[in-house]
């Protein structure tokens, strides 16, 4: 604009004389002049319009460009802003901790992060871990140190917490009865003055930084054995540090980004968040050659036991032939921590709003998970179903890859399961051996899609029926005489000791001594002989070669089976009809195997190992294999114990199986 | 003097505006050329800058995805339309060099590619590389429809569309998901609140206005304009499929509400009927699809889909609709061949045709033929014993895809009007006693068949 503005003044003067000359010439041609004027006005209008349009166009183009760059700018600003905020504001948290007989609570900056006043639960020491930079709750645990061994768990947990985290302790009801010196010393090393002297029914609260300062401690002594100490309320302030100080400086990779996100949110996973030497979260196990289950979806059924889930996923992702893309974790409830674990491993997770209660809730969660699995993988013919409290054997997928074609081809099969109910340390021997059994073990199994879609899904127990899904699946209406294939040595290990139907005692009695395969690449030996008819031939061959044991001896005694190795023995027990398991149950009891209900049978035959010998048990006369009994042998009968015990024990724990 | 002044002013103004106009034109030209200048780089011979920009952006994009081993295929309707004209030549020389930029230089704002979800997972690396190459990108995520039908499951949101922009051209990457019923699905493109609405002219996109359903395409690797791409083996049938690809999700939320009001029947009979109805529908769909006859869910089956996303257990048959223009004489023998004998045939092709086939255990497959008029469509009914004719009127409708009992099938897009025409405003209330002659709200008497025609128009087997 500057260019032409001064010019018109000069130009117009010249133009003026030119115009005057012209005017004289055409003085009388008024009409023409009028025309010229109109023309000029029209021209003016057109140029104005064109000009405006041009201006708009140019401006828009410029504006677009500007916006693009402005956006880039915004993004950068955002990135800078996030860390700056906490760095500059050294914030202070107000922490309130309450300890009493019937209620505990913890409030951070006015927000209640723990409140437990439920009756008859939550006894012991509650521990909360806060992030020292953000003040977020990273872990919440309760250790019932009134009971044995819980203090060991607490020590384990506290040792896993990273230095610098803020720890909050409070006791509900009683927390000292089984609090041993190791635990007390650890608490003392954290800065507690009272911990070494904590005694029966004392109330106690403590806030401190791991490996650092103490923010406050309060204690109320119980005056007498029969009463509790007075409630204590501790109010204190905690100074937050900067994010940089609270984080580790791992190399910036995709994996470490996931790790960072995880470690800034939760605590209690040990070396995964170690700054110096973090444990890997990607495992890259060897791929399987000719893997037939690479495209089979894996559904992991989970609840709110994130530490279990963490252990489970580690073992699953370390198994040879695993395909992480096919894994979906289904979490029953909107729990954050299990989801954090799922994201740490880069897997996909789905949360499920709980429906119904107790066993029915589990059952509804199973249904939703299975349906979702087949929706998400419409091509799949099978799904592998796992639970969050299982260790997965290194050859789990190899085992399935070798056997899955049977499930497709043999209509008489119900499932393939990685779990042998009777496979204990002293009763399982051969990793390459498979069985057919009439019971469905669960605990790591393969489900055929058409079985689920055509039979199970349409009549799955509704939420108001408080049934166990697995008990329901074992019912004859569902199973319809079909069998499952199981390995002699289980390919999964049930480690969960807390759960709906599970407790420490029960776990120790029935699950702890279970055998678990740790040998990679086991070549299964009798896969084809597991087809319906071939299996009968195989059993007849086995029985033909088996040596009949001395039936005058007590089968519970160790000497019942000779001290040999690699032989096949058979014994006959009394079994009047198909459902008569009186003697079997007694035998199972004294052999210390699963005796809560009948498992692992195939047409009145059980197969297990004793002293490294294959040991067959045939129920006479119900079993079709009874014909193999020499006429001289009288089947063994074992008396059930006094009525009261048997009557109570069986129904009470029949449901207690998978959690 | 006054007049002179006016003239002078006018002339002056004209001159000024002329100069200003010239200046503006110059500035604009300069500005635009500068903006596009960067994208010119190695211009392809006679092509103008804009054209070669498109080609370069596509080439860069293809380089990007092949470096990450991601199999995409071209679904751009504009380019496929051009390709289709020369398809024979392209097929016969899949690797031949091309003399000119014929396809990828065609004027357009976008180039659209498809990506199968299950063939990739590692997006982080891809987009980091894309950024390094100068692409700006936008990701559109939304709920996973495969979990929509499920009671209260909340999964992670899934990516539905990606848009990568470089210079003046953009790549639209549509993510296709496999769904139950052996078909591919892509989601609608919906911008969330915080998103940049001016990132690209979204309205001009060819995919994303509605969700769509497609068959799994057979792909062909070709070289066009010296770029190696995968395209659908038969572009014209893909384009035809695209024009009718709109997909309707079942109304799962409403279905749940319905089941809360009227709990589902889980009795043995109901389960069995559903199973049979499902397999009958699968068989019918297979048969009709093989014949190339377009059909949709009608009457009770359509109501079941719309109201409860399932087969109504107390209905006793499966109902399908077919436009009479799609009628083929082979329909009856084809059904007989797959084990569904003709049960009855009412009417004739010219008027009120209705076929009924006998499925397994009393489950019947009814096929109603629809006749199109100027402002409505209708199908006919016939009472066997009296020869009475009935007419069921429906407002005009178009067909959409949906998923029903693990099957990709058509339903009227305007389902509500269709269902309301058939069942009245109270369609939400289950009715067990249904009389096809009087219960429908759209039934009209339509006279009586002449007695001498009865043998032809009332055939019962």
TrEMBL record, chain A:
One Pfam family from the record: ILEI
Topology class, membrane: Single-pass type II membrane protein
Cellular component terms (Gene Ontology): Golgi membrane
Claim: Translocase is one of the keywords in the record: no
Cofactor mode of binding and number, as noted: The manganese ion interacts primarily with the substrate UDP-N-acetylglucosamine.
The protein's Enzyme Commission number: 2.4.1.-
Localization, UniProt: Golgi apparatus membrane
Gene Ontology terms, MF aspect: beta-1,3-galactosyl-O-glycosyl-glycoprotein beta-1,3-N-acetylglucosaminyltransferase activity; carbohydrate binding; manganese ion binding
Pathway info: Protein modification; protein glycosylation
Keywords: Disulfide bond, Glycosyltransferase, Golgi apparatus, Lectin, Manganese, Membrane, Metal-binding, Phosphoprotein, Signal-anchor, Transferase, Transmembrane, Transmembrane helix
KW Transmembrane (keyword) present: yes
Domain spans labelled ILEI/PANDER: 123-212
Main location: Golgi
CC cofactor: Mn(2+)
Signal sequence, renumbered to the chain: none
Note on domains (UniProt): The stem domain mediates specific interaction with beta-linked N-acetylglucosamine moieties of O-glycosylated proteins. It also interacts with its product, N-acetyl-beta-D-glucosaminyl-(1->2)-O-alpha-D-mannosylprotein.
Record's function text: Participates in O-mannosyl glycosylation by catalyzing the addition of N-acetylglucosamine to O-linked mannose on glycoproteins. Catalyzes the synthesis of the GlcNAc(beta1-2)Man(alpha1-)O-Ser/Thr moiety on alpha-dystroglycan and other O-mannosylated proteins, providing the necessary basis for the addition of further carbohydrate moieties. Is specific for alpha linked terminal mannose.
Subunit structure: Interacts with DAG1 (via O-linked mannose moiety). Interacts (via transmembrane domain) with FKTN; the interaction is direct and is required for normal location in Golgi membranes.
Family under the similarity heading: Belongs to the glycosyltransferase 13 family.
Protein name, per record: Protein O-linked-mannose beta-1,2-N-acetylglucosaminyltransferase
Species, as recorded: Calyptomena viridis
Record gene name: Pomgnt1
UniProtKB/TrEMBL annotation, chain B:
Pfam families associated with the record: FKTN_N, LicD
Keywords: Membrane, Transmembrane, Transmembrane helix
GO cellular component: Golgi membrane
GO biological process: one example: glycoprotein metabolic process
Residues annotated as domain Ribitol-5-phosphate transferase FKTN N-terminal: 1-278
InterPro entries tied to this protein: FKTN/MNN4/W02B3.4-1 (IPR009644), FKTN_N (IPR045587), LicD/FKTN/FKRP_NTP_transf (IPR007074)
Subcellular location: Membrane
Primary localization: membrane
Bilayer disposition of the protein: Single-pass membrane protein
Residue span, LicD/FKTN/FKRP nucleotidyltransferase domain: 292-329
Entry keyword Transmembrane: yes
Family: Belongs to the LicD transferase family.
Protein's name in the database: Ribitol-5-phosphate transferase
Organism, scientific name: Calyptomena viridis
């Amino acid at each position: 604009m500057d260019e032409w503005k001064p010019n018109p003044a000069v130009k117009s003067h010249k133009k003026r004389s030119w115009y005057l000359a012209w005017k004289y010439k055409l003085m009388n041609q008024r009409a023409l002049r009028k025309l010229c004027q109109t023309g000029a006005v029209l021209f003016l209008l057109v140029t104005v319009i064109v000009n405006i349009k041009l201006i708009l166009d140019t401006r828009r183009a410029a504006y677009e460009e500007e916006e693009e760059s402005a956006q880039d700018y915004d993004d950068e600003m955002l990135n800078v802003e996030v860390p700056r905020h906490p760095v500059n504001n050294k914030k202070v948290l107000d922490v309130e901790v309450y300890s009493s007989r019937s209620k505990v609570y913890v409030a951070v900056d006015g927000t209640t992060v723990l409140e437990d006043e439920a009756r008859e639960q939550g006894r012991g020491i509650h521990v909360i871990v806060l992030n020292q930079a953000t003040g977020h709750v990273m872990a919440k645990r309760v250790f019932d140190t009134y009971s044995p061994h819980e203090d060991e768990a607490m020590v384990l947990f506290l040792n896993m917490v990273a230095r610098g985290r803020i720890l909050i302790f409070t006791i509900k009801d009683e927390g000292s009865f089984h609090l041993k010196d190791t635990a007390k010393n650890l608490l003392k090393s954290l800065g507690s003055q009272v911990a070494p002297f904590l005694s029966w029914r004392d109330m106690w609260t403590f806030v401190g930084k791991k490996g650092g300062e103490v923010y406050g401690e309060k204690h109320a002594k119980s005056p007498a054995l029969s009463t509790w100490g007075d409630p204590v309320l501790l109010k204190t302030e905690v100074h937050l540090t900067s994010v940089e100080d609270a984080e580790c400086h791992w190399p910036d990779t995709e994996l470490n980004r996931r790790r960072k996100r995880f470690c800034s949110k939760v605590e209690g996973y040990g070396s995964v968040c170690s700054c110096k030497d973090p444990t890997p979260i990607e495992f890259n196990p060897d791929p399987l050659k000719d893997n037939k289950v690479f495209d089979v979806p894996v559904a992991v059924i989970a609840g709110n036991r994130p530490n279990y889930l963490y252990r489970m996923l580690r073992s699953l992702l370390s198994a040879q032939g695993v395909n992480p893309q096919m894994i979906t974790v289904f979490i029953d409830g909107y729990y954050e921590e299990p989801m954090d674990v799922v994201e740490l491993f880069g897997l996909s997770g789905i949360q499920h709003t709980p429906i119904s209660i107790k066993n029915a809730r589990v059952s509804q969660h199973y249904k939703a998970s299975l349906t979702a699995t087949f929706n998400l993988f419409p091509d799949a013919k099978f799904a592998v179903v796992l639970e969050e409290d299982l260790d997965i054997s290194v050859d789990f997928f190899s085992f399935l890859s070798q056997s899955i074609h049977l499930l497709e081809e043999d209509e008489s099969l119900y499932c393939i399961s990685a779990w042998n109910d009777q496979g204990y340390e002293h009763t399982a021997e051969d990793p390459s051996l498979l069985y057919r059994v009439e019971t469905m073990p669960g605990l790591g199994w393969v489900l055929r899609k058409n079985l689920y879609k055509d039979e199970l899904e349409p009549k799955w127990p509704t939420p108001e029926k408080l049934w166990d899904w697995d008990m329901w699946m074992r019912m004859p209406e569902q199973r319809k005489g079909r069998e499952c294939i199981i390995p002699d040595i289980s390919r999964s290990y049930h480690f969960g000791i807390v759960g709906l139907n599970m407790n420490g005692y029960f776990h120790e009695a029935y699950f702890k001594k279970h055998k678990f395969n740790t040998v990679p690449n086991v070549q299964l030996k009798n896969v084809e002989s597991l087809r319906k008819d071939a299996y009968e031939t195989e059993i007849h061959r086995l029985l033909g070669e088996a040596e009949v044991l001395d039936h005058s001896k007590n089968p519970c005694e160790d000497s019942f089976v000779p001290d040999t190795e690699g032989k096949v023995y058979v014994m006959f027990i009394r079994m009047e009809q198909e459902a008569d398991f009186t003697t079997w149950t007694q035998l199972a009891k004294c052999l210390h195997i699963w005796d809560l209900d009948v498992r692992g049978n195939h047409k009145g035959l059980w197969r297990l190992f004793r002293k490294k010998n294959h040991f067959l048990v045939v129920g006479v006369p119900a079993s079709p294999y009874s014909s193999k009994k020499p006429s001289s042998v009288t089947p063994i009968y074992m008396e059930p114990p006094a009525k009261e015990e048997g009557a109570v024990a069986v129904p009470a724990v029949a449901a207690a199986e998978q959690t | 003097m006054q007049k002179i002044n006016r003239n002078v002013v006018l002339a002056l103004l004209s001159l000024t505006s002329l100069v200003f106009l010239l200046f503006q034109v110059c500035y604009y030209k300069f500005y635009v050329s500068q903006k596009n200048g960067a994208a010119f780089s190695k211009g392809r011979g006679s092509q103008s800058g804009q054209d070669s920009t498109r080609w370069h952006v596509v080439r860069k994009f293809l380089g990007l995805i092949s470096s990450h081993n991601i199999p995409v295929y071209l679904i751009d309707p504009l380019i496929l339309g051009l390709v289709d004209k020369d398809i024979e030549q392209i097929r016969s020389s899949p690797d031949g060099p091309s003399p000119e930029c014929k396809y990828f230089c065609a004027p357009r704002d976008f180039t659209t590619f498809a990506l199968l979800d299950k063939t990739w997972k590692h997006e982080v690396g891809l987009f980091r590389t894309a950024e390094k190459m100068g692409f700006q990108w936008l990701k559109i995520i939304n709920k996973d429809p495969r979990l929509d039908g499920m009671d209260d499951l909340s999964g992670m949101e899934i990516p539905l569309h990606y848009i990568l922009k470089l210079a003046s051209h953009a790549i639209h990457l549509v993510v296709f998901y496999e769904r139950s019923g052996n078909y591919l699905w892509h989601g609608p493109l919906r911008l969330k609140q915080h998103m940049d609405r001016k990132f690209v002219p979204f309205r001009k996109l060819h995919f994303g206005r509605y969700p769509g359903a497609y068959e799994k395409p057979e792909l062909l690797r070709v070289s066009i304009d010296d770029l190696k791409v995968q395209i659908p083996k038969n572009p014209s049938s893909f384009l035809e499929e695209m024009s009718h690809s709109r997909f309707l999700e079942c109304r799962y939320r409403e279905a749940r509400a319905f089941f809360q009001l009227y709990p589902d029947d889980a009795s043995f009979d109901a389960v069995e009927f559903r199973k049979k109805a499902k397999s009958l529908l699968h068989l019918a769909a297979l048969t009709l699809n093989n014949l190339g006859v377009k059909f949709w869910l009608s009457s009770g089956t359509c109501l079941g889909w719309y109201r409860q996303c399932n087969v109504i257990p107390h209905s006793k048959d499966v109902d399908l609709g077919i436009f009479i223009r799609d009628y083929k004489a082979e329909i009856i023998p084809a059904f007989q061949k797959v084990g569904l004998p003709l049960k009855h045939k009412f009417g004739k092709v010219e008027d009120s045709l209705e076929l009924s086939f006998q499925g397994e255990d009393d489950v019947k497959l009814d096929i109603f033929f629809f006749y199109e008029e100027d402002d409505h469509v209708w199908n006919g009914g016939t009472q066997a014993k009296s020869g009475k004719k009935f007419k069921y009127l429906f407002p005009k409708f178009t067909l959409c895809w949906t998923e029903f009992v693990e099957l990709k099938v058509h339903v009227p897009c305007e389902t509500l009007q269709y269902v309301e025409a058939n069942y009245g405003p109270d369609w939400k209330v289950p009715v067990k006693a249904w009389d096809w002659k009087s219960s429908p709200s759209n039934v009209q008497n339509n006279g009586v068949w002449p007695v001498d025609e009865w043998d032809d128009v009332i055939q019962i087997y």
